Structures are given as structure tokens and as C-alpha cells.
């Protein structure tokens, strides 16, 4: 796998206030891969590519625009390695960790890959993105999640409906956006805030929409990700790559991984092929 700084802020903010997060990290292969339990990951490749494999023999390459949904479930050991690009293109991507419902924490691991050409896209005046009434792909993750990638030109704007009570955030990859949120049943909008590159705006659960625009004076288009997901209303206890619901489950996960039991049997002695071609790359 490649390791780096997690996208976690030092402070928690309310509606429309940015979270400062890590700009980038150096990705380096860890020879033995990594064991995971209790969550799903959504990997989105923005440029370059990533080789991936796991202890069950699943292997492949994710390229620019591709998505991968991986369910760790009861246990998986896998490796991810940025590819080498002869043209010097950086490997840039995002990986979102999504909690599994308690009753699915110990389900069987699985993968769902979605190639760029399979992802619906729409173009509107002033912006483009995976929205604007285009039907989304369904049943790719156990926990309902919306993952929208927008590009908005200077002077452009969008109004995106979101399921009421869902958690939501916007993360700016390039440029800057003006963000406000509110309910479609209320004609008034909260004051907008400017969110710059590599910052995150986290929205409150009240309301059912967000409004985002780009200043007409902006020198470049804004490129950002909007993510929304269903809150599970359950305890979350996370230790490294293990995401469960209690301290006791964390301790059990560590024991199972070390002993090669209860889902980690194939992890014993497994070494990824990626480790044979160790490379470094910068990713977001």
C-alpha cells in the first residue's frame, strides 16, 4: 500500500467553515501490504494510476477517472502502489473511508471497479460534473454515498440537492469556491464563505441543498469533490486500519490479524507483488 498523512483536521467547524487538511503526501510502498477490517474504501484516481492487489489474488490497475469500491468486511490484506509514468505525470487520487453498518462489519470482502467511461457525466453552462439529473450508479457500497466531482468555470454556479440529515462536505482540488447552504423551503441563504485549494467545507445536517459558485474574477476554474453519506448512528472505534464499534473489537481485530484468524488466514506470509517494484509518488 502507500501511506501518507490522513485527511483529518485539527479542529471541527460548523457550516461553510473550511477545514485545513494536508496538501499532499509522499506515497511509499510498504512491503507486506496492509490488513483492514470493518470499513469500505472508495478510491478515485484523478491523474496517473495505481496498481492494486490483495491476498486473494485479485489484481488490477486503476487509471485516471476510475473508481474502486473495496469492502474490507471481516478482513482483507491488500496493497496499493502508484504506477510509474514515463511522461512525469503525478499520481493523484483520493480515498474515502466509509463505515460499514454494524451488522455488516464481518461480511465477506469484495471489490467493485467502475471505469471512467462507465461513470455518467453532464455538462452545463458554466460547469460540468457528475450531477445535473444524470442517474447515478447504485449498490456500489453498503452505506449510501454520493461522490460528485465538479468543474465550475469563473462566473459559474451550481445548486445541488442533498438528502436531508446526510453528512456532507466539499473538498477543493484546484481554484477556490464560494459556498453557502440552505433548504429549498427557505428563500434565504446563509452568507457564503470562500474555500480555497486543499481546504474542506463541512456542512451541517439541516437543510437539503448546497449552493456553490466561482467568482467571475477568478483566474482559473474550480475543481472540487462533493461527498454526502448516510449517518449510521453507531459507535465508531478506529485503530489504524481497523474500524469497528468497540475497544474489545479493536483488540480482537489486532489478535486475529497477528494470528491469521477469523478472516486473516490468507494474510500469513503474504507479500505483495507491488513490493518488488517499490516506487515513490506524490498524491493528494
Automatic annotation (TrEMBL):
Q: Which CDD domains match?
A: cupin_pirin_C
Q: Which SUPFAM superfamilies match?
A: RmlC-like cupins
Q: Which domain of life is it from?
A: Eukaryota
Transmembrane domains' residue ranges: none
What's the short name of a Pfam family annotated to this entry? Pirin
Q: Which residues form the Pirin C-terminal domain?
A: 147-263
The record places domain Pirin N-terminal at: 36-98
User: Which family would the database say this protein is a member of?
Assistant: Belongs to the pirin family.
The name of this protein is: Pirin
Amino acid at each position: 500500500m502507500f501511506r501518507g498523512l490522513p485527511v483529518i483536521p485539527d479542529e471541527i467547524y460548523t457550516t461553510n467553515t473550511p477545514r485545513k487538511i494536508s496538501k499532499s503526501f509522499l506515497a511509499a510502498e510498504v512491503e507486506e501490504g496492509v490488513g483492514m477490517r470493518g470499513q469500505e474504501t472508495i478510491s478515485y484516481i484523478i491523474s496517473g494510476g495505481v496498481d492494486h492487489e490483495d491476498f486473494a489474488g485479485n489484481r488490477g490497475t486503476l487509471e485516471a477517472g476510475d473508481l474502486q469500491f473495496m469492502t474490507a468486511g471481516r478482513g482483507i490484506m491488500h496493497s496499493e502502489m502508484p504506477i510509474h509514468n514515463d511522461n512525469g505525470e503525478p499520481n493523484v487520487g483520493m480515498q474515502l473511508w466509509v463505515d460499514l453498518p454494524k451488522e455488516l462489519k464481518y461480511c465477506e470482502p469484495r471489490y467493485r471497479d467502475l471505469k471512467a467511461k462507465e461513470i455518467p457525466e453532464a455538462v452545463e453552462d458554466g460547469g460540468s460534473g457528475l450531477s445535473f439529473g444524470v442517474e447515478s450508479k447504485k449498490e456500489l457500497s453498503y452505506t449510501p454515498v454520493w461522490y460528485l466531482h465538479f468543474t465550475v468555470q469563473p462566473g459559474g454556479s451550481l445548486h445541488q440537492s442533498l438528502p436531508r440529515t446526510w453528512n456532507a462536505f466539499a473538498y477543493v482540488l484546484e481554484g477556490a469556491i464560494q459556498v453557502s447552504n440552505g433548504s429549498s423551503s427557505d428563500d434565504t441563504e446563509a452568507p457564503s464563505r470562500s474555500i480555497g485549494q486543499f481546504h474542506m467545507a463541512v456542512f451541517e445536517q439541516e437543510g437539503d441543498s448546497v449552493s456553490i459558485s466561482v467568482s467571475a474574477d477568478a483566474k482559473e476554474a474550480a475543481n472540487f469533490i462533493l461527498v454526502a453519506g448516510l449517518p449510521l448512528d453507531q459507535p465508531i472505534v478506529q485503530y489504524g486500519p481497523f474500524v469497528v464499534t468497540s475497544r474489545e473489537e479493536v483488540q480482537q481485530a489486532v489478535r486475529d490479524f497477528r494470528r491469521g484468524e477469523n478472516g486473516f488466514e490468507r494474510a500469513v506470509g503474504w507479500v505483495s507483488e507491488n513490493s518488488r517494484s517499490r516506487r515513490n509518488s506524490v498524491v493528494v
